[in-house]
Amino acid sequence: MNASLLNDLTAVRTASKALNRASVDLINKAILHTADLAEQNINEIIRANAEDLARMDSENPKYDRLKLTPERIKDIASDMRNVATLASPLGITLKEWQLENGLSFKKVSVPFGVIGIIYEARPNVTFDVFSLCIKSGNACVLKGGSDARCTNEAIIKVIHKALTDCGLPEECACLLELDHEATKDLLTANGYIDLIIPRGSSRLIKFVRDNASVPVIETGAGICHCYFHTAGNVEMGKQIINNAKTRRVSVCNALDCLIIDKSRLADLPELLSLVEKENVIVYADEQAYNALNGKYKFLEKANDESWGHEYLDYKMSVKTVDNLEAALEHIAKYSSKHSESIITDDENAQRIFQTEVDAACVYTNLPTAFTDGAQFGFGAEIGISTQKLHARGPMALPELTTYKYLISGNGQIRSK
Q: Percentage of residues in the chain with pLDDT exceeding 70?
């Protein structure tokens, strides 16, 4: 690790201790002040964002994720103000008991300390992560992507001013240099970083998982399926499929693969009628291709790479299955364990699907687009965990804490 990065991480670790002593009111004040400054500096942030956008092809699906507008910045500020209104997740007694020997035990929620976030072309994440981390008592080390370099630099200036104006160390939030070696060093910064959360493509998450010695919570990669069962409602189905695919194609909860029961292939053109209007390219297996040929404009034949693929684009695949069991097998083989959905009026099929699908979020007659902390009523989220240890699904404030045991006594001595 180079000296500059070591100094930065040491300063962040020190700043995290200052957060431990900060009152809830002071933390909320800093978040609210950041929201105010974000709105006051809209022109500067938009100007920096324009520099980043100029380097990206406007046809790139990531362009919309990168783009900030005055309205989006105001929405981000509103989200931060919402975080400030949420109850603090710290110092909560999760469990309390006393033994016959007089020892008293408390299990209490506490911050992790320092959280490292590695993310791609989504500059709103910089504000989101800061507000969630500081609210949960954690300092944060941010490693944004090169696509959002100028925007992130403008945003961190706003955050640092808000922190210093409120009497908190600006090192509570640190934006790392765009250096590949710095990323690797961050992943192995044991003793300085307590937790790494990657947000982005499956390629990014795999890199982090394969190279980190610091604990990692995997988030973001969403290979999402929707199974149209033999008892599915067509009118409901086409609305769900369209919303899941086209609401925002570049997000992790967007639909990637429609699975259809072979008994309903005649309904496939109607099921895709709305996504056709959005110019979605469909990669269909042989049976689905035959059902769509001449009835769908943007049709291609699927190949082995069409399955288990996160498109993040106006593209999706269609897989035909014989029955519910075959649908479950396909999902089990190709799912990233993020979000899966079934469309059916059959209650037994619903129950089996909900029980057997191994994913963080399992939907019935709903689009996977609802996988979002705000939509769950959590107020905000730092990411969608696709693993099972510590946190699963949308991670909100409680998931950014761990716990410790506080044990009190009156001089008791343990016997030999």
A: 100
